[in-house]
Amino acid sequence: AVSRGRILAVGPALELRRRYAGKILDHGEGALLPGLVNAHVHLEFSALRGKIPPQPDFPSWLTRTLAAAGALTPEAVAAAAREAVAEARRTGTVLLAEVSNTGTSWSWLRNSSMEFHYFYECLGFNMVHGGPLEEDFPFLTTGGVPGAPNFSLAAHAPYSVSPELFRRLSAWNRRRGRGQSVHLAESPEETRFLATGNGFFRELLQSRGRWHEAFVPPGCSPVSYMEHLGFLGPETLAVHGLQLTGADKTLLARRGTTVVLCPRSNLHTGAGFPDLPGLLAAGIPMALGTDSLASNRDLSLWQEMVVLHDHYPDVPISRLLDLATLGGAEALGRAGDFGTLTPGKRAALLFVPLQEGGDFWEELLRAGAAGKLSWAREQENRHG
């Protein structure tokens, strides 16, 4: 039963009909679900869809992506990003976490019907000074941006952000009670860089004029490095989490840091594949993302669940759906609105038609992945 865009009650149809009057919407046989939550996407790379083929390793993918992104026109970026938002909506996404290092997608999203959290992503391996972040990132002076509750700062990655900048970003977010995000433990090259200070990422930084000669490699894992910098915590989203030791997993669980899985992107970039059973066993909070269309063919979270199910058939499909709904809502601080069918939450409901008598969860997953879903729209000021 819903009214004014919120869920009033959940229960058997006969019971709710006795308690509430108003229009009744009968969708037929199938499942009503909460809208999905995409906890990590880069909309500004949407114009690269189909332009970067799957790569054997992460450096190869990143090199090709940086070159291709530099050739995009602003008009192409904007048009593709708007279509990507519409596609996410069509595949059942009600809330997404956009990660942008230009800020251009802010206005597109604000003018769309999509609920979102905006992570403005900062890079600066050679930024070793203190001072106001606004001096280094002028987008923070844009009217209305810093005060928006759905706006946060993100650190790109351990190989592209200096220790000093990590601390400045974290302090900015925590003063305002905002979440934060970082690409973490994504590739073997990241682990090598932090252990030795050498390899692909040092060469990349030097070629782009971002290397800092005084950098001393911490000689530890990416997760331990974030702990040393005070960047872990329940407000932090650690995206990817592929190169994790047992000690890393224990630390992430203890800090309550959410790991955001992007399995199809990981396969596309050659970075690896998430250890879902190990993450579950460690008790780490998790959410699901698609990453960008530079490393994925679409923004369907159903397809992410299919890939995880194919790799780990012993993990219940219901648990995968948790990652794509409540896990993301909790990670983005929006569990009061989204993630479950619970009284008081937003009535952002999906309907997936199903046949009686089959394997419910398997049929639900395949139907959702095939796009056989619709938004179950409530009537304003009505119950039903």
UniProtKB/TrEMBL annotation:
> Entry's InterPro entries?
Amidohydro-rel, Metal-dep_hydrolase_composite, Metal_Hydrolase, MTA/SAH_deaminase
Q: Which GO terms describe its molecular function?
A: hydrolase activity, acting on carbon-nitrogen (but not peptide) bonds
Q: Which residues form the Amidohydrolase-related domain?
A: 32-352
Coiled-coil portions: none
Q: Does the keyword Chaperone apply?
A: no
Q: Which UniProt keywords apply?
A: Hydrolase
Q: Write the protein's name.
A: Amidohydrolase-related domain-containing protein
